[in-house]
Design the sequence.
C-alpha cells in the first residue's frame, strides 16, 4: 500500500506514538487500567501497520522472525524467573512481597512490574509472529 | 403476559448471552466452510464473555479504580477472568486459522464436503 | 523454607520454564536432551509429592502467598498425586524415545518446537490435576488443549491437519462448556476455590443455576474425556498424530478429563447432589456401557491399528465412565485404578505402533504379517499389553475390571457386571486378530525388517513390565485409589 501517499505519511507519523502509547499502557498498568496484555497488543499493532503499508519484507528487516520468537520465549522466562527468585528469597512461588526483604509493598510493586513486562514482551512477540507467519504464507 | 416480559427484560443480558450461544453453536454445527465454523466458534465464546461480564455488574457501581466519592464498585474479578478467556480465544482462533491454511494447501479447499470428496488418502 | 515445601509449585513451574528454553535452542539435538531432563525432574518431583502425601496427608500450597479462598492454591491429595505420577511418568518414559520416533514423522525444522509444545502440553495437564482453583483449571485445560491441537497437526499425513481442526472445534466447545459451568457456580457462590465452592454449594441444593452448571461441566468434561457419544474427535486425532504423541495422549489426555469429572462430581458438587438430585449414575452408566460396546465393535473392523487402538480407548473410557457413575467405594476405586492402568497399557500399545511405524512406515494389518518372528520383542510387548487390555489375571487390566465388577455387584446392578464381562470378550477379538496375523502368517520376503532401536524399545518394555508389575503388586495403585476414594468422601 506504499503507493498511497496519505496512508504512508499518516502511518509513519502515527507509529512512534503507537509505540509510545504501548509503553505508557505497560508502565501505567500497576496503577490504572492497562497492563501487559493490552500494551503487548498495541506494541504489535505498530509493526503490523508498518508491514501492511510498507510490506512484510521491510518489516522483517527491522524486526526479524528470530527476534520475535526469542521475544516470545524471553517474556515467559522473565515471568517464571520472578517466581523462582521469590522462591529463593524465601517466599512462596510468585510471592512478590519477598522480592524486597525490607519493604514487602515495594516488593509487590517490583514484582508486578516485571511480571507485566514479561507478559507484554510475550504478547507483542506472539501477535507479531502470528502476523508474520500468515503474511509470509500468503506471499509464497 | 407482563410477568413474562419483565422476566425477559430483567435478564436481558443473560438472554442475549444464551441466544448468541445457540447461534454460535448452530453455525459451528451446520456450516461446511471451515472459516465460518471458526466465526461460529468465536460468537459462541463471545456469548460466554458476555455472561461473565454480567456477573461482575453491580448496580450503580463505579469502575473498579479507587475514586473520590465512589461508594460501590463493580466486581473486577470476572473482568480479569474474561481477559484471560479472551486471550485463550485469540490463541484458539489463530491456531484454527493456521490449520485452515494448511488444510487449504493440502486439499485445495476449505469446504468440508469437498475435503471429504478428496477422499481418505 | 526448604525446597521440599515448594515442590507443588515446581511441579508445574519446571516444565513451564523448560518450554521457552527449548524454543530458544536452535538444534533439536540440544533441545531433546534438555526436554528429557526436564521431564525426568518433573517425574522425580511427582514421586516426592506422592511420598509426602502418603506420609503427611493432603498438601496445600498457596501461590504468591495469598491464602485461600482469595488466592490460587495448589491442593494435592491422593487422587491428584496418583494422576500427577501417571502424567509425569508417561512424559518421562516417552520423551527419551521422541527423538527417534518423530524423526520419520516430523520435519527437522519443527522438531525444536515439537519439544516446546510437548512440554507445554505436559505443563497444562499437570496444572489441571494439581490446581485447587476452578478457573485456573480452565486456563491449564486450554494450555494443554491448544498444545495438543498443535501436536496432532504435526503428523506427516495431510489428514492430520483436518483431524487437528476437528479436535480444536470440539475441544474448544468442551472447554467453553466447562467455563460456562464454572461461571454459573461463581455467580451463585462468589468463589473460585474448589474447597470453598464445595462448602458453599451444600446450602444451594435445588437451585436451577447450580443444576445447569453441573450439566454444563458434565458435558464439557465428557467431551474432553472422549466419552461416548462425544468421542468423535478422538479416533482421527490419535490415528494421524505422530505415534509418540498418540502414545502420550492415549495415556494421559483423556485421563485428565476423567480427573475433572471425578473432582467435580465427588468433590465440588458432592456425591449427594450429583447422585440423589441429578441422578448422574443414570447418565454415566448407560453411556459408559454403550461406549464400551460401540468402541470394541468398531475396533474389530479397523484395518489401521492406530485407529483400532483409538476405538479401544473409547471402550476403555466407557468402563471408567460407568465406574464413576456407580458412586460406591469399589466403583470409584475401579475408576481411579483404571485411569492409571489404562494409561500404562495404552501407552505401551501405542509405543509398539511407534516401533512398527519406524521400521515399516505404517501400522496396518498387512505390515504386521509375520512380525512375530521379525520383531519378537516388540510383538511380545504387544501381546502382554493386549492381554492386559482384555483383562487377563496378573495384568493391570484384570485389577481394574475386578473392582469394576465388585462395584457393580455392590450397587446391586448385576446386569452391568454381565455387560462388562461381555464387552471384555469383544476386546479378545480385536487383539487376537493382530496376534494371529503377526504369529501365524508368513512375512513377505521382499522387505528386511529389524527389531526396533533400543531408544524406542526400552520405553515400550518399561511400560509392558509395569503392566505386569502393577497387576501383581496391587497394593500401590489400589491402595492409593482407596485413600483417594475415602478422601473424596466415599467410604466402603
Sequence:
Amino acid at each position: 500500500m506504499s503507493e498511497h501517499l496519505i496512508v504512508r505519511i499518516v502511518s509513519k507519523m502515527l507509529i512512534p506514538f503507537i509505540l509510545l502509547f504501548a509503553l505508557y499502557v505497560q508502565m501505567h498498568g500497576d496503577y490504572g487500567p492497562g497492563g501487559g496484555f493490552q500494551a503487548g497488543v498495541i506494541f504489535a499493532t505498530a509493526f503490523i501497520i508498518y508491514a501492511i503499508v510498507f510490506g512484510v519484507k521491510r518489516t522483517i528487516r527491522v524486526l526479524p522472525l528470530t527476534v520475535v520468537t526469542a521475544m516470545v520465549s524471553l517474556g515467559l522466562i522473565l515471568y517464571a524467573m520472578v517466581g523462582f527468585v521469590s522462591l529463593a528469597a524465601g517466599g512462596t512461588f510468585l510471592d512478590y512481597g519477598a522480592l524486597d526483604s525490607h519493604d514487602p509493598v515495594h516488593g509487590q510493586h517490583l514484582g508486578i512490574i516485571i511480571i507485566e513486562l514479561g507478559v507484554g514482551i510475550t504478547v507483542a512477540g506472539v501477535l507479531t509472529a502470528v502476523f508474520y507467519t500468515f503474511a509470509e504464507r500468503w506471499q509464497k | 403476559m407482563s410477568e413474562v416480559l419483565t422476566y425477559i427484560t430483567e435478564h436481558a443480558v443473560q438472554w442475549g448471552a444464551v441466544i448468541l450461544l445457540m447461534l454460535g453453536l448452530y453455525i459451528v454445527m451446520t456450516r461446511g466452510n471451515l472459516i465460518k465454523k471458526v466465526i461460529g466458534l468465536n460468537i459462541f465464546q463471545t456469548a460466554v464473555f458476555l455472561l461473565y461480564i454480567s456477573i461482575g455488574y453491580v448496580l450503580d457501581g463505579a469502575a473498579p479504580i479507587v475514586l473520590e466519592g465512589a461508594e460501590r464498585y463493580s466486581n473486577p474479578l470476572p473482568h480479569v477472568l474474561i481477559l484471560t478467556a479472551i486471550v485463550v480465544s485469540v490463541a484458539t482462533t489463530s491456531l484454527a486459522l493456521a490449520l485452515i491454511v494448511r488444510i487449504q494447501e493440502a486439499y485445495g479447499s476449505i469446504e468440508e464436503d469437498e475435503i471429504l470428496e478428496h477422499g481418505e488418502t | 523454607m526448604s525446597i521440599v515445601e515448594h515442590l507443588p509449585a515446581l511441579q508445574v513451574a519446571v516444565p513451564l520454564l523448560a518450554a521457552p528454553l527449548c524454543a530458544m535452542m536452535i538444534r533439536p539435538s540440544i533441545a531433546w536432551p534438555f526436554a528429557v531432563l526436564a521431564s525426568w525432574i518433573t517425574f522425580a518431583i511427582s514421586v516426592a509429592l506422592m511420598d509426602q502425601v502418603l506420609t503427611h496427608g493432603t498438601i496445600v500450597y498457596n501461590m504468591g502467598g495469598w491464602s485461600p479462598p482469595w488466592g490460587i492454591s495448589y491442593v494435592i491429595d491422593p487422587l491428584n498425586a496418583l494422576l500427577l505420577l501417571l502424567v509425569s511418568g508417561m512424559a518421562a518414559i516417552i520423551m527419551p524415545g521422541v527423538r527417534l520416533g518423530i524423526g520419520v514423522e516430523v520435519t527437522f525444522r519443527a522438531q525444536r518446537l515439537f519439544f516446546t509444545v510437548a512440554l507445554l502440553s505436559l505443563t497444562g495437564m499437570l496444572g489441571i490435576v494439581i490446581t485447587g482453583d476452578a478457573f485456573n483449571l480452565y486456563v491449564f485445560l486450554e494450555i494443554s488443549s491448544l498444545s495438543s491441537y498443535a501436536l496432532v497437526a504435526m503428523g506427516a499425513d495431510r489428514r492430520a491437519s483436518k483431524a487437528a481442526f476437528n479436535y480444536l472445534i470440539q475441544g474448544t466447545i468442551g472447554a467453553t462448556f466447562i467455563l460456562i459451568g464454572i461461571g454459573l457456580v461463581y455467580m451463585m457462590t462468589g468463589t473460585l476455590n474448589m474447597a470453598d465452592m464445595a462448602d458453599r454449594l451444600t446450602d444451594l441444593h435445588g437451585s436451577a443455576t447450580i443444576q445447569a452448571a453441573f450439566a454444563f461441566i458434565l458435558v464439557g468434561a465428557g467431551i474432553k474425556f472422549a466419552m461416548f457419544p462425544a468421542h468423535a474427535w478422538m479416533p482421527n486425532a490419535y490415528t494421524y498424530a505422530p505415534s509418540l504423541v498418540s502414545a502420550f495422549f492415549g495415556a494421559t489426555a483423556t485421563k485428565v478429563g476423567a480427573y475433572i469429572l471425578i473432582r467435580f462430581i465427588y468433590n465440588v458438587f458432592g456425591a449427594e447432589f450429583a447422585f440423589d438430585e441429578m441422578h448422574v449414575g443414570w447418565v454415566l452408566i448407560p453411556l459408559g456401557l454403550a461406549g464400551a460396546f460401540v468402541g470394541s465393535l468398531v475396533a474389530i473392523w479397523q484395518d489401521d491399528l492406530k485407529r483400532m487402538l483409538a476405538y479401544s480407548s473409547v471402550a476403555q473410557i466407557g468402563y471408567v465412565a460407568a465406574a464413576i457413575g456407580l458412586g460406591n467405594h469399589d466403583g470409584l476405586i475401579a475408576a481411579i485404578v483404571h485411569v492409571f492402568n489404562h494409561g500404562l497399557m495404552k501407552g505401551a500399545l501405542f509405543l509398539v505402533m511407534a516401533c512398527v511405524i519406524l521400521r515399516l512406515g505404517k501400522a496396518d494389518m498387512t505390515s504386521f504379517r509375520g512380525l512375530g518372528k521379525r520383531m519378537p520383542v516388540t510383538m511380545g510387548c504387544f501381546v502382554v499389553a493386549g492381554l492386559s487390555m482384555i483383562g487377563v489375571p496378573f495384568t493391570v487390566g484384570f485389577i481394574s475390571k475386578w473392582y469394576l465388577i465388585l462395584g457393580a455387584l455392590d450397587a446391586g446392578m448385576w446386569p452391568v457386571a454381565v455387560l462388562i464381562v461381555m464387552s471384555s470378550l469383544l476386546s479378545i477379538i480385536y487383539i487376537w486378530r493382530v496376534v494371529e496375523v503377526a504369529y501365524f502368517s508368513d512375512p513377505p520376503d521382499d522387505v528386511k525388517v529389524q527389531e526396533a532401536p533400543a531408544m524406542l524399545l526400552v520405553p515400550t518394555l518399561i511400560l509392558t513390565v509395569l503392566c505386569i508389575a502393577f497387576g501383581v503388586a496391587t497394593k500401590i495403585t489400589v491402595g492409593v485409589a482407596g485413600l483417594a476414594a475415602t478422601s473424596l468422601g466415599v467410604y466402603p
About this structure: Chain A touches chain B through eight residues (CB under 8 Å). The longest helix of chain A spans residues 104-139. Chain A has one domain: 5-139.
